[in-house]
Amino acid sequence: MLKERLQKMGILGCITCIVGSVVIVIHAPQEHTPNSVQEIWALATQPDFLIYVAATVSVVLALVLHFEPRCGQTNILVYLGICSLMGSLTVVSIKAIGIAIKLTLDGISQIAYPQTWFFLTVAAVCVVTQLNYLNKALDTFNAAIVSPVYYVMFTTLTIIASAIMFKDWSGQDVSGIASEICGFITVLSGTIILHATREHEQTTAPVGTVTWYVSGDSLKGAEEEHLITIHNSDYYVQ
Fold this sequence. Notes:
- The structure is a single chain.
- By secondary structure, this protein is mainly alpha-helical.
- The chain is built from 7 helices and 3 strands, in the order αααααααβββ.
- It has a 3-stranded antiparallel β-sheet, with no helix packed on it.
- The chain is globular and about 55 Å long.
- The model is unreliable at 207-233 (pLDDT under 50).
């Protein structure tokens, strides 16, 4: 539909990213499911997770205020970094909202709790920010590159946020952790390949051509950057 194509290295980068993500998901620990909004709030206000939130907000502000004006149009990681970081907070907020809706439908109203409205506000802000910068990324870069890179970054940061919040990694064995680290390195390699493919496409843009015609016969081709002035009315340029 978008008529965009990937080169061979771009396809390799996509496959590498997907394989790395699958390895991470397969070896990820079982996630703990809270049973109330208050329980999620208690987990979200842990010192470890508050440090993650502060770091995330700081990096997002740095990307928006410093890096976007300077390299947002040339580096795909700027827009997608903002989307992915905000997305990791969106997942936590949406989970709290889902639990609140479920309990409310079961007859245990969660509307009166301020935590419910706090999570709703955070989710709304994060979703709007994600959509805004994702649209910018799609308008600027090849969609075939944006999709896998965004998927990889969003998945990785969401797993990291969940691990910090729910402490699911504490009981995992060494082999599982090693597999996840290998998966992350694979994902990082694929992302680098995709970004390198984008830079290569920008530096090898095709040069258009124009053709001279004399009395209807093709004479020669020339690069369009050459300017030609013809004074005789019997000749014309197409």
